[in-house]
Amino acid sequence: MVVEKRKPIPIKEAIERIVKQDIYTQQNNISLEDSLGYVLAEDIVATYDIPRFNKSPYDGFAIRSEDSAGAFSKNRKTFKVIDHIGAGTVSHKTVEENEAVRIMTGAQIPEGADAVVMFEQTVENGDTFTIRKPFEENENVSLKGEETKTGDIVLKKGQVINPGAIAVLATYGYTEVPVFLKPSIAVIATGSELLNVDEELQPGKIRNSNGPMIQALADKMRLTIEPYSIQQDDLESSIQVITKAMKDHDIVITTGGVSVGDYDFLPKIYKAIQAEVLFNKIAMRPGSVTTVAVANKTYLFGLSGNPSACFTGFELFVKPAVQHMMQAKAVYPQVVKATLMEDFAKANPFTRFIRATASFTHNCATVVPSGFNKSGAVVAIAHSNAMIMLPGGTRGFKAGHTVDVILTESNVFEEELSL
Ligand code: AMP
Ligand code: MG
C-alpha cells in the first residue's frame, strides 16, 4: 500500500483556513444570568447617561460653591442644614445662600447645590456646620454623563460577555441578551485499545483520557458537548457514528486514527463522507497529523490520540473555530513573551509546542517545560498552564532566551503576593 504523502502547512495557515469558513451559529436571545461566555450579537447602545444625574460620590453636605468663597481656618464659613437625603431619595428643597443638604453617597445633588463637602472637612454643631476651605463648582460631584452619554456604544457586537459586560447589560435593563449561540459539539474517542474510565485494565489496553479531558476543556469555555461511546477502529461503524454525529452537532471532534497506521481510518472516513479536508498535516509537533475538515457546514476536528497532541490541537484549532462560529471579534490564541528557565536543546524543523509552567513572580514572566513532554504524555498536561511555542529550525534553545508562550490557564503553580 502506498502511503499518501501529506504536505505540512504552517500553523498560522492552518488556523486561517479554519476561521475562513462560512460556518456560523444562529443568533438568539438568552437570559442575562446565562449569558456569561456568549458572544454579543448586537452593539449595545446607552439609552441614558451614566451617571443619570449629578450625584454625590461621598457622604457629606451639598452646598453652593459660591458660598464657600474666602473660607479659611481663621474665617470659617457656616452653613445651615435644611434637608437630609440618602441614596435613592431626592430632595425637594432648593439650596439657597449658606444652606446645605446632608447627602449620602449616590444621592442626587439637590437643586441649587453644585459642590459636596465631605463630613471629614466639616465641624458640625447641631443643624449647622462650618468649613475652612473654599470649594469649586462641581467639586466632589459625579457629573451626569461623565462616564457614558446617551447614544454611546457601551458594548460592541462580537465581544465575549464577561462579568463587566453583565454589569453593563444589567445597568441598561437587559433581562434578555442578543447573542450568537454556542456550537453543539460531539466528542468521539476512537481506538480499539481504549477502555472507559471505570473499566479494569486489560493487556494492551489503556483508559480513554482524551474524552474526559476534552469534556473539561469544553466546560471551561462553557460549551456543551455530547460524549459518544468509545469507537472501535472499524471503518463501517465509524462512518455511521460520525455521520450521525454530524447531523446532530455543529462540531464533531474525534481523537485518534488520523495518522497513517493500518487502523487509522479517519482519512478514509473523510473521503467516504465527502468532507472537504482543510489540512491533514501541520508543521508542528506534537500533532502534525491533526486534520480538520468540513462537511455540510459542520466542522470535523480529527485530533491526534496522543494526549499532549490532543490537548494542543484543542487549544490551537478547536478554540478559534468555536470563537469564529460565534462571530467573536477575537479568535486567535494570544502569544506572550516569557524567559525560558531551562535549556531545550533538541532542534526540530517543525514548530514545537511544549506543555509548560509559566510563573509571574517578581513581576517577570518565566516559563519552564512541565516534565516528561513527549506527545503521548498525560501528566505534564496537568502541571501546565501554558504552552511554549518554539519556532522550527536547526538550533535548540537555552535558558535565558525569550520565547513565545500561549497561556492555557489563568491559575499558576508557584506564587508570591506581588500586589
Ligand atoms: P492514534 O492517534 O490513534 O494513532 O493514537 C496515538 C496514541 O494515543 C496511541 O498510543 C493511542 O493508544 C493513544 N490514544 C488514542 N486515543 C486515546 C485516548 N482517547 N485517550 C488516551 N490515549 C489515547
Ligand atoms: Mg488509534
TrEMBL record:
Residues 186-324 form the MoaB/Mog domain. The keyword Translocase does not apply. GO terms for molecular function: metal ion binding; molybdopterin molybdotransferase activity. Keywords: Magnesium, Metal-binding, Molybdenum, Molybdenum cofactor biosynthesis, Transferase. GO terms for biological process: Mo-molybdopterin cofactor biosynthetic process. SMART domains: MoCF_biosynth. InterPro entries: MoaB/Mog-like_dom_sf, MoaB/Mog_dom, MoeA-like, MoeA_C_domain_IV, MoeA_C_domain_IV_sf, MoeA_linker/N, MoeA_linker/N_sf. One of its GO terms (cellular component) is cytosol. Transmembrane segments: none annotated. Its cofactor is Mg(2+). Pathway: Cofactor biosynthesis; molybdopterin biosynthesis. The keyword Transferase applies. Its EC number is 2.10.1.1. It catalyses: adenylyl-molybdopterin + molybdate = Mo-molybdopterin + AMP + H(+). Catalyzes the insertion of molybdate into adenylated molybdopterin with the concomitant release of AMP. NCBIfam families: Glp_gephyrin (NF045515), molyb_syn (TIGR00177). Belongs to the MoeA family. This is Molybdopterin molybdenumtransferase. It comes from Staphylococcus hominis. The lineage of its organism: Bacteria, Bacillati, Bacillota, Bacilli, Bacillales.
